[in-house]
Amino acid sequence: MLSFLFAVISVMSRDGTNTACFSHCCRNVAIVAVSRGRNTAFFFDTGQKRRGRGGKAGGQGSRPQLFEDTSTMPPQPTAPPYNMNYGGAQYGPGFETTAYPSQQQFMGQQFFNDPMASMAMQYGTSLADQGREYVHKNIEKYVATSKLKYYFAVDTAYVGKKLGLLFFPYTHADWSIHYNQEEPVAPRYEINAPDLYIPVMAFVTYILVAGVVMGTQERFTPEQLGIQASTALVWVVIELLATMLSLYLLNLNTELKYTDIIAYAGYKFVGMIFSLLCGLAFHGTGYYVALLWFGASLTFFLVRTLRQQVLPYAAASDGYAHGTKRSLYLILSVSLLQPVLMWWLTSHIMFGKKL
């Protein structure tokens, strides 16, 4: 198009024909081309001035330009270096929407690049590692993980047989615990061995059954579950401390460990569950019958079991063993205490007043 216009202008200039007309029509010809994102205007003027009647020039001068000459203007500023595309809307023509990290990510990078922050994080990590190692060492000193695994080495057959032994211990003959290379046989292979699986499961079940019983009496509150759990746990701890202190004061040689005492003290939760369920079904009569039955069974079970565990080996110079009566008193005290605690921890649940 541009070449064509230049050709027409040159031909008509040579011929001299209709030069005035062409000058009138194309006095100001503007051709706007877009090159490299900038507007460049080319203006062509024939140099002829329109003259009015009487030989004077029409107007004060040449006619005003139709387009502004931007060839000598400075370039317009480009888009800012940040993203102006908020919510998918682009502000202004030609704005670039390059994706940059958010302000939070930038602040996070500044935090991690800060040497003081890096030193604080390393110091905190080292302190956490030291504390974890210290706790692990102290726990292993008093409660070895391998020893705890022994008390949970049970299976379904063992649990069924042990529950049957707790309810009906009168026909059981062999109460000794077998050993394998000076180590007691795992509970799954030895029914007389103490375990912690049944006491722990019975403790949790006792809390739930107590909540059900109180719910049927319309006096259940969430706080009651915490009260029952903490009370039962405190009595187990008191029982453990009293037994260990008695063994020390009576100077009795025994094979009992504190985990064994916790296991034997935790078997009463099975009878507490049984008593509450019978009381829920048959009211007060069922509760007392179940409590008396399991209390007598548990007492017989503990007497026969603890006799194999509490061994008075202190021999006098005359060759006779001493401490038999003291050990017997301790065994009877521990065994007879279990039914009393069963009644103490369940009677207020069974016969509590409604709110």
Please explain how this structure is put together:
- By secondary structure, the protein is mainly alpha-helical.
- Helices cover 58% and strands 6% of the residues.
- It is built from eleven helices and four strands.
- It has helices spanning 2-15, 19-25, 103-113, 115-142, 145-151, 156-167, 197-216, 222-249, 258-266, 268-309, 324-350, and strands at residues 28-35, 38-45, 179-180, 183-184.
- Strands 1-2 form a two-stranded antiparallel ribbon. Strands 3-4 form a two-stranded antiparallel ribbon.
- Helix 6 (156-167) crosses helix 10 (268-309), helix 8 (222-249) packs antiparallel against helix 11 and helix 10 packs antiparallel against helix 11.
- The chain starts with a helix and ends in a 5-residue tail after the last helix.
Structural class, please?
mainly alpha
- Counting copies of identical and different chains, the oligomeric state is single chain
Physical arrangement of strands within the biggest beta sheet: 1-2
Helix amount: 55-70%
Let me know the average pLDDT: 73
Q: Shape, please?
A: globular
Q: Can you count the beta strands?
A: 4
List the helices and strands and how they pair.
Elements: H1 2-15, H2 19-25, E1 28-35, E2 38-45, H3 103-113, H4 115-142, H5 145-151, H6 156-167, E3 179-180, E4 183-184, H7 197-216, H8 222-249, H9 258-266, H10 268-309, H11 324-350
Antiparallel strand pairs: 1-2, 3-4
Helix pairs in contact: 6-10, 7-8, 7-9, 7-10, 8-9, 8-11, 10-11
